[in-house]
Design brief:
This protein is α/β, with parallel strands linked by helices. The chain has helices at 2-24, 87-93, 104-107, 175-178, 198-208, 223-229, and strands at residues 28-30, 37-43, 46-51, 54-58, 74-77, 99-102, 114-115, 121-124, 127-134, 153-160, 163-167, 185-188, 212-215, 236-237.
Amino acid sequence: MRTILSLASVTVLLATLTSAALAAAEPQIFPTSAGPVKITPLNHASTLIEAGGKIIYLDPAKPVDFSGRPKADLILITDIHGDHMDPDSIKAVSKADTEVISSPAVAQTVTTAKPVANGETKTWQGWTIDAIPAYNIKRGPAPGKLFHDKGRGNGYVLTYGGKRFYFSGDTEGVPEMRALKNIDVAFVCMNLPYTMPPEEAADAVKAFHPKVVIPYHYRGSDLSVFQKALAGTGIEVRLLDWYPK
């Protein structure tokens, strides 16, 4: 009888966890003075942002199937690696008047992109786009080398209707991240060996204290470590499923 009850309990638990994971993958909607911003996790770093009737993709890349998804008014690209810069996916979501904004390093390959360097600001259709440095401080493939050199990649702070959304791109907890101000929603990466572990990500998040933080680009990371490290800080942690089966 104990075995039967245990199996039943496990079945219920698994069903509950599955439901939670599916619910977590649903779009997140944030109110602003200009209307709602809807943000949908697609996979890893790939993100769909919808607001004011406009469609924005951040880092559209495989394995996302973009057939049947809306075409982009704007595409933002953070870095040259294939999980961020994927010419096939860029083509799949583009239409005749799609605009692309990227770091200068990306624009060398994606020649239609308008380059925005670290520290620069652009405006687009009611959005303000700030390029935030995204880079490694200590992690790299070999001594003296880094996975992401300073100046090559962008994170972005996207401001719309008075709300500020931060997407970290590939980075460690660099001073420019820690110095951010008035961030409403932060999407922060964590995956070794390329960026940083959950505890370092949490420490950086404590420094700039967004109202809401959402881990993304976290393949292989233990998100419970991140969540526990931010307990009691007043920062809302939302765990979403960026790796649908």
